[in-house]
Design goal:
single chain; mainly alpha; 6 strands; elongated
Amino acid sequence: MERLFPPFPVWASLAEDSTHEIAFQPTSENPTTREESPSSHFELTLPAMYCDEKNERILIDKTNPHALTRYFDSEVSVHRLDNIFTHLWLAGSKGDSDPPSLTEQTMRGRSLVLTPRADMHMVFHGQKSYIKPVPEFLLCHTIWTTYLCQDTELYGSAFGLLYSYIPLIRNKSDFRIAKSNGILSEEITWQRWILICTELERTCRTTEMPMHVRYTYAELRLARLNWIYRLFYGKLVHGYYRQDSRGWLVGTDRLSNNEGFQRASYGFTVFSIIAPVITLVAYVGIVVVSAVWNVILMGMRKRRDLNSQELGAVGYIGGLRRSKSNKKRALPSNSHPDH
């Protein structure tokens, strides 16, 4: 495995700030154990529990490194987007385009909605923009060296998530919006944020540290993510993210696990998408066939009219000839020559 290192130096870390001495006091009464027990640094920065992907509450054992690693993974994981990675281009643009800053989003009339899920971070729907607050542990150098740098996949997700905040919080107005909306912790100063962003940008440009491929995309459209999940992943009822629409179908929670209902819903969903296309193609086909048939009929009428004109002309000429021949035959009988 490639050797990984924190994306910012120790002097830019939030944990080394003197104002956080109380937050990182060891639980042991012996002060010499402070550097020997990094997990004790998390007592006031980590919550008591978290919810996993199945929405089950899990108590964080801060003395268990594996439990802490699972918690960090749950905070930065975007596994749901991994399932539909090949279709993400349908939901967002990939390339050098950055997501709009918080100030730009406010100017567009969007409301910033906080989300605890990294896979809903930088996702928008209508006038709502979902933003995950910056996890404080991502700003701690010790956590990077002790946990995040030990796993390439975990590192890529954590680094990508932290790096995504640079275009969102570019200037001081963005910083104020982030602080007022709870995206950034109150303890983070503007000067500290500048240092962290500078080091993150330098790391990204000068090294090839792993970054999750989700963060090669800018914003993602929630409506399209829902349709992608319904069509390609079989989540027909809930889609990618179910909003507050529990009343639209009776028994949704029970039917979501019913295989027969899922198949019927899948068939109906596919039909509802294909049916308008078939109708449009059929309509265009009818119009084209009607137009071709009318052209053929017009050609047949023109030929018939020409034939009737030709027949009329031939009959007229034949009549003139017959009348002249009749006159010539009648001349000897009607004439009286002098003797």
